Amino acid sequence: MFAGAASGQGALDVARQADDAYAARRWPEAADLYRRLVTRSDASWYTWYRLGMSELPIAVARAIPAFARSAHLGPPGARASAFERLGQAYGDVGRADSAYAALDSALAQGDRLRGLATDTAFAALRRDAGFAAFAAHADSVSRPCAYRSEARSLDFWLGDWVVRTRGGMQVGTSHEELALDACVLVENWSSVSGSTGRSINAFNRTSGHWEQTWFDDQGGTIEFRDGVASAGQVQFLAKVRETDGRPSERRLTFTLLPDHRVRQFSERSTDGGKTWGVEYDFYYEHAAATSQ
């Protein structure tokens, strides 16, 4: 309870006044009103959070316990924001180690901390000698695929390519790019005849294998599974059906060649993998090199 707003309607009136002051960025007024609200035993994590946000521009030290309380009371989805702001407040008062601990807690709650490098909220913390190391750590937590060596096995295929047969005839162009914070490699294929296709390639942490799903502009799809990576090579396998309904297998191998081209070699087996026949043998040349 608090003076002037013992219960019920009085508390609602103060909450409205606090929210109005907050929206108008009248920080001293908002902070005073939220301080009154948090004296109630039923004060929510959100009230504590708004108190912290109101204190930040006027009295950073007072924001610290407010954000700490908000992080303690908040549901899982809210704790990340409270811990992030707690890290900001600690950074502003020069307590870098406490700031990093709070930001680590934010990461553990799913915060990506995207603003570490540019947000003015972390300007003070960026002046700390340990910031670069923490920023690298935060990036590795928020973008794990970019740092897992097994997920980088197909990166040699990235770029813009002119695609030719073994004999040198151009069959198409292709552009490969990373997506979803480097967890997925996307292929964008265009043939000289005008057809197009796209594949999604990714390392499956659960199975420990590479996978590719291919789509084309005629509604065709192929699901490659059990892909195995080695130095400069990834090989995929797929079970498909021929147009006559017979089961068959496809083996698709990408290999980085010494001259920096990429070979895409597709084979088909109709006898359960006992024998394999060549389906196509393509060579990817960097588009920039072919234009010189």
Attribute tags:
9 helices, 35% helix, 292 residues, alpha+beta, Serine Threonine Protein Phosphatase 5, Tetratricopeptide repeat, 2 domains
Write up what this structure looks like.
This protein is an alpha+beta fold. It folds into 2 domains: 134 residues, Serine Threonine Protein Phosphatase 5, Tetratricopeptide repeat; 141 residues, Lipocalin (Beta Barrel). Helix content is 35%, strand content 30%. A 10-stranded antiparallel beta barrel has the order 1-2-3-4-5-6-7-8-9-10. The protein is elongated and about 80 Å long. The N terminus is likely disordered.
Spell out the blueprint of helices and strands.
Layout: H1 9-23, H2 27-37, H3 45-55, H4 60-73, H5 76-92, H6 96-108, H7 123-126, H8 131-142, E1 159-165, E2 170-179, E3 184-191, E4 196-204, E5 209-216, E6 221-230, E7 233-241, E8 247-256, E9 262-269, E10 277-286, H9 287-290
Helix pairs in contact: 1-2, 2-3, 3-4, 4-5, 5-6, 6-8
| Overall tally of domains | 2
> Please, what is the average pLDDT?
94
- How many helices? The count is 9
Compressed to H and E, one letter per element, the order equals: HHHHHHHHEEEEEEEEEEH
Q: What profile does the largest beta sheet have?
A: 10 strands, antiparallel, barrel
Morphology call: elongated
Major sheet strand order: 1-2-3-4-5-6-7-8-9-10
Instruction: Give the amount of beta strand, in percent.
Output: 25-35%
Determine the CATH superfamily of the largest domain.
Calycin beta-barrel core domain
